Amino acid sequence: MAFTDEEMEFIRSHGIARLATLCEAGQPDVVPVAIEFDSVYFWVGGSGETFLTTRKVNNVREGRSKVALVVDDLPSLDPFVARGIRVYGMADGPVQRTGMVGPGLYLRITPHASWSWNLAGEPVGATWYESRRAVHDRSVAEDLS
Question: In CATH, what number does 5-135 get?
Answer without folding.
Answer: 2.30.110.10
